[in-house]
Amino acid sequence: MLDVLAQVEIFAGLSGEELEMLAGSSVSRQYPKNTVIINDGDNADSLYLIDSGRVKVYCSDKNGKEFIMNTLEAGDYFGELALLDDDRRSASVRTMEKCSFRIIYKEDFQRVISEHPNIARILMRNLTRRVRTLTDKVKSLALQDVYGRVTKVLTGLAKPRDDESSFIEERLTQQDIADRVGASREMVARILKDLTIGEYIGFEGRNIVINGKLPASY
């Protein structure tokens, strides 16, 4: 558990003793595939660390259409703002496969930082950096056209291979990509088709393979 906490961005800089205190205040939970872990608007009372599995972070409009904000896997975390404020959840999270979590509840966290106030100082510093990074990402997405947003999603998910190509382990549908970039499925389909014809991308089963650097513009 200490190894997991040490790799969490918002806990960077904590001492071994401080990490041990946090580990001791956490609990373990497992959830099956397709389980909603938190709902947008829920009371925020806990931080989730992903031990295994993958989740998607999303929001929905009044018609029920989902916009996928992110996908997270083992070593990632969500719900961190719950440790510091009394606001409600700003997004929903659903498991994409069977998942195991370590959960730190706000009440237990506040007890720990009352004994180790340095944890709160480091956490706030790290959260400030995280907010700035997220702001830069939002700004980048806002200034890009649909093609730019699609290629950003593809390259962001791809993992390099030895032959200079990269492979997306997640099996994305055209609708999955459209939900992430805020575009129509038809537009995404056209972009993927053109990238395939140009041999910039290919498919291995239902997985996308990127054959080198994607064009800068459409």
Q: Which features would summarize this protein structure in a list?
A:
alpha+beta, 2 domains, 7 helices, 38% helix, Arc Repressor Mutant, subunit A, Jelly Rolls, 218 residues
Explain briefly what this protein structure is.
With 218 residues, this protein is of the alpha+beta class. The chain has helices spanning 2-6, 16-24, 106-115, 118-143, 146-157, 174-181, 185-197, and strands spanning 27-31, 36-38, 46-52, 54-60, 66-73, 77-78, 92-95, 99-105, 159-160, 166-167, 201-204, 207-210.
Task: Describe the model.
This protein has helices spanning 2-6, 16-24, 106-115, 118-143, 146-157, 174-181, 185-197; strands spanning 27-31, 36-38, 46-52, 54-60, 66-73, 77-78, 92-95, 99-105, 159-160, 166-167, 201-204, 207-210. With 218 residues, it is of the alpha+beta class. It has two domains: 2-142, Sandwich (Jelly Rolls), CATH 2.60.120.10; 145-210, Winged helix-like DNA-binding domain superfamily/Winged helix DNA-binding domain (Arc Repressor Mutant, subunit A). A four-stranded antiparallel sheet has the order 1-8-3-6. Strand 4 and strand 5 form a beta hairpin. Helix 5 crosses helix 6 (174-181) and helix 6 (174-181) crosses helix 7 (185-197). The model has no long low-confidence stretch (mean pLDDT 87).
